[in-house]
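Sharing a chain and its predicted structure for anyone who wants a worked example. Both blocks are below, sequence first, tokens second.
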Amino acid sequence: MLAVLSILAVLATILAWFAILFTGSYPRGLFDFVVGVGRWAARVWAYAFLLVTDTYPPFSLR
């Protein structure tokens, strides 16, 4: 799932580049999506590779 979201985030970044080129501003929806994917990716990587105990923290999509 993260790989699919990452590909979509790259496409959203390319689309945002064109939006910035023509309008001069980064569309808020694209910004929120790209930042959200980055935050979720960091959380997944931290849980997968930095969690060294057998007790898992609660996982939330917030």
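Comments welcome. Residues 2-49 form one domain.
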